[in-house]
Write a structure and sequence with these properties.
By secondary structure, the chain is an alpha+beta fold. Helices cover 40% and strands 14% of the residues. The protein binds flavin mononucleotide.
Length: 207
């Protein structure tokens, strides 16, 4: 693959992109959220089964439903963000195998026959897709604020109860929250000082 990503783009997506704690009063339209999904969906997942499901909260009423689940330190930044994405995953992601992995549709049974493998695969790949969402958002000029400081059980009860997303196998609902991502345009005056990163030799081995 020829490298067509220039240094400016790498700055925007990695080196200069910061985790935001406060937001400018600039809306994010539904068209941008659609564009975001149209980019992130191309990131690779196990057997192409794409377990992530995203709920974009972009109205005050929708945000208020999230408020009781948030850790106290995450309330203000989340309630003031133009959009908060709930990055979730579908526990029955493998039901899409015939469509998403047509050259080997029997892949469905591999997961249907092992709850442990299905859960691991959903969580691993759903998390990867959350990372694709962050990088896609940055590529579109949006800022992000990912968060795991919230009560997953409360979010699931509020947003994914039975009979939403239902089936007879899992009557409690089949979507599960993983983490949250605030989206918008960050207020650069409210950033924490940037933390360092591990050096290559600390984080990597060359074998
Ligand atoms: C999965 C995940 C969960 C996080 N949870 C929280 C959180 O609950 N509250 C918060 O204020 N920041 C949270 N953060 C933000 C991190 O602390 C931040 O991304 C990290 O320090 C790097 O900051 P930088 O992008 O500005 O360099 C989370 C980040 C990630 C990726």
């Amino acid at each position: 693959m020829t490298n067509q990503v220039n240094d400016t783009a790498m700055d925007q997506i990695f080196r200069e992109a910061r985790t935001q704690n406060a937001w400018l009063d600039r809306p994010v339209g539904d068209d941008v959220l659609r564009e975001l999904y149209e980019l992130m969906k191309w990131g690779p997942t196990s057997a192409n089964l794409a377990p992530a499901r995203i709920v974009f909260l972009r109205t005050k009423a929708a945000k208020e439903r999230l408020r009781p689940a948030l850790a106290p330190g995450n309330v203000e930044k989340t309630m003031s963000a133009p959009v908060t994405a709930i990055v979730a995953y579908d526990e029955r992601f493998f039901d899409q195998a015939a469509r998403l992995f047509p050259h080997y549709p029997a892949m469905r049974e591999v997961f249907a026959n092992s709850a442990k493998l299905a859960e691991e695969t959903a969580f691993r790949n759903g998390t990867l897709q959350g990372a694709y969402l962050i990088l896609a958002a940055r590529a579109l000029g949006l800022d992000c604020g990912p968060m795991s400081g919230f009560d997953n059980a409360k979010v699931d009860a509020e947003f994914f109860p039975a009979p939403d997303g239902i089936d007879e196998v899992n009557p409690a609902g089949r979507w599960r929250s993983n983490f949250l991502v605030n989206l918008g345009h960050g207020d650069p005056t409210k950033l924490f000082p940037r933390g360092p990163r591990l050096e290559f030799d600390e984080a990597c081995k060359l074998l």
